[in-house]
Design goal:
Layout: E1 11-14, H1 20-31, E2 35-40, H2 47-57, E3 63-66, H3 72-86, E4 89-94, H4 109-130, E5 134-143, H5 146-150, H6 156-176, E6 182-188, H7 201-210, H8 219-230, E7 241-244
């Protein structure tokens, strides 16, 4: 019996995969046989590159690509490199994102725009450029958030970007359907890694009271959702938002 989570021969790109959930995702695909592309953005001290090399070091024959997803020319160059070295792309996970919380009264325009530029424009750029190399029956998975569904306090920029990603997912699902490429989104709730991990204990406790399952999610629970959406088991699911939030939002 064929294992639906066997990605042998499939080429998978996870943007922002040098650390956090992105790193766990690309490692999970690698363990299941995928040919993997690790993406990072250059930073002044070279930490992102070092992190990406560390992740790629544990993956057989991984391709490391530096790309700022907000730059269309860099996204295009990344896809050209993937096509040249790996022959095309089967699974794209748009994971890159930033957060800069502040109330509307204090939020600067630059802080608002910068989050939309990375989270939303970055997702658009990479999706648009991937269209040239995505193979028939491919998969696109976008990372949204419960914040984009509920509008959390102090997150006018982040919530707006993640809500817009849901709309972009639905439009993309319609436009890519001709090639039998599905486009779906994952909307994580509070996950015990990355952006949510640094919350003060009292704040975490208050949120846990509002989550029916009574806890923050684990990174592997987001990774498992991505594996499912990328697999043949989800071949007739497109334009969908998969909530992984412990019941915090039931829309």
């Amino acid at each position: 019996m064929t294992d639906p989570l066997d990605f042998s021969g499939k080429v998978v790109l996870v943007t922002g995969s040098s650390r956090g959930i992105g790193a766990e995702m690309i490692q999970a695909f690698a363990r299941r046989g995928a040919r993997c592309v690790v993406n990072y953005i250059a930073d002044a001290n070279g930490q992102n590159k070092s992190d990406a090399e560390g992740i790629a070091g544990g993956i057989n024959d991984a391709l490391i690509v530096e790309c700022d997803v907000t730059k269309p020319e860099q996204a295009e160059a990344m896809m050209s490199q993937i096509n040249e070295k790996l022959g095309g792309l089967d699974v794209l996970v748009n994971n890159s994102g930033i957060i800069r919380d502040r109330t509307i009264k204090k939020l600067t325009f630059e802080e608002f725009e910068s989050v939309l530029r990375v989270n939303l424009a970055g997702t658009f750029n990479v999706t648009q450029k991937a269209a040239a190399v995505l193979r028939q029956n491919g998969r696109i998975i976008n990372l949204s958030s419960v914040s984009g569904q509920m509008g959390l306090f102090g997150q006018a920029n982040y919530s707006s970007s993640k809500a817009a990603i849901i709309a972009l997912t639905k439009v993309s699902a319609r436009e890519f359907a001709r090639q039998q490429i599905t486009v779906n989104a994952i909307a994580p709730g509070f996950i015990d890694v990355g952006m949510s991990k640094g919350m003060p204990e009292n704040v975490t406790a208050e949120f846990n009271k509002q989550i029916p399952l009574g806890r923050f999610g684990q990174a592997h629970e987001i990774v498992d959702a991505a594996l499912f959406l990328a697999s043949p088991m989800a071949s007739y699911i497109t334009g969908h938002v998969l909530n992984v939030n412990g019941g915090f939002y039931m829309g």
